[in-house]
Amino acid sequence: MRKSTQVWTVMSMIEWTTDYFREKKIPDPRLSIEWILAEILGIRRLDLYLQFDRPLSSDELNLIRPMVKRRSTFEPLQYITGSTAFRTVTIKVTPDVLIPRSETEMLVDLILGDPAGNDQDSIHFLDLGTGSGCIPVSIKKERPQWNCYGIDISDKALSVAKENSEVNQASVHFFNADMMNPESSIELSEGKWDIISSNPPYITADEVPELNPQVTKYEPGIALFHSDPLTLYHSIIKFSSKKGASLYLECNNKTASKVAEMASGFYRNVILSKDLDNNDRYVSAINPLTV
After folding, report:
1. pLDDT at position 257, please?
2. What percent of the chain has pLDDT over 90?
3. Span 84-288: which CATH code?
4. How far apart are alpha carbons 278 and 259 in whole angstroms?
5. In this predicted model, what pLDDT tens digit does every residue of 156-175 receive, in sequence order?
6. Is the Cβ–Cβ distance between 191 and 182 less than 8 Å?
7. 90-120, pLDDT tens digit by residue?
8. 32 close to 71: Cβ distance less than 8 angstroms
């Protein structure tokens, strides 16, 4: 963004930066600058257009310029501003955690609709590979009587998750464990779990060329990619059924049907659900065969 004696207003900043981002092939160019301006000015994006002729101060411009520069390299807006909305909570995000998606909000809808949640005042809920903690934190806010837990193999991710629990005043217990080897964790293997969820890394190396640079350049590979996702799902399904827990999974639309078929070998009732784009995305498994 050029520096000059020009007086920058909200609208001139939106128009110039939208064109700049479009030239750089940045996704959602207008939304990107609206998001940045709303963050700096402390207002809603919609309200920017009620203040379209408002001059931007030199202090505001000094905050906007580096954010525009970061976005021009495809850095996600959520990392630039440091947080994102997820259902009823605000989730802090850093490059150590995956940015929560709207698809995962729908996974939470499925979890909250579990039959066990209607019959008991106290549910033991576990999220495997919790990342930012968005799933258990949001669930704890909406079901305060539930006992919510989250595990991750990354200590840096767990640090972010714990902060999100504290900031949102949602008491969630987080601990380090490997979802590929749950029996190695005493806390996992000996815990009582009624409902388990997971949005594990399910993208293979072959799919990397299909992804946007803002994903491949900035988001943590450990949360995105796995050499054999179906093996990972098998480990989760086997563990959950052994614990007698209902299971809710977010999946790659290319392999979701295979995950559902796999779950049918461990559960009596398995449902494959679609996301808002009509892609197979979620596997719900209830009533383990071992119980």
Report:
1. 96
2. 79
3. 3.40.50.150
4. 17
5. 999 999 999 999 999 999 99
6. no
7. 999 999 999 999 999 999 999 999 887 665 6
8. yes
- Ranges of CATH 3.40.50.150 domains, the chain: 84-288
Q: At what angle do helices 256-263 and 229-242 cross, to 10 degrees?
A: 30
C-alpha to C-alpha distance for 135 and 198, rounded to whole angstroms: 9
Calculate the alpha carbon distances from 203 to 21, 51, 115, 136, 157 in Å.
28, 43, 31, 23, 19
- CA–CA distance, 154 with 157 (Å, rounded to integer): 5
**What pLDDT is attached to residue 215?**
86
Report yes or no on whether pTM surpasses 0.85. yes
Q: Which runs of consecutive H residues, i.e. helices, occur in 52-185?
A: 58-71, 77-81, 102-112, 115-119, 134-142, 155-167
- Taking the C-alpha atoms of residue 96 and residue 220, their distance in angstroms, rounded to an integer, is 6
Question: What integer is the mean pLDDT of 33-50?
Answer: 94
Task: Name the nearest CA neighbour of 13 among 25, 24, 38.
Answer: 38
Q: Which CATH number fits domain 10-73: 3.40.50, 1.10.8, 1.10.3470, 3.30.200?
A: 1.10.8
Domain(s) of CATH 1.10.8: residues in the chain: 10-73
For residue 254, give the 3-state DSSP assignment.
Answer: coil
C-beta neighbour count of 84 within 10 angstroms:
20
Q: Say how many C-beta atoms besides its own lie within 10 A of residue 11's C-beta.
A: 14
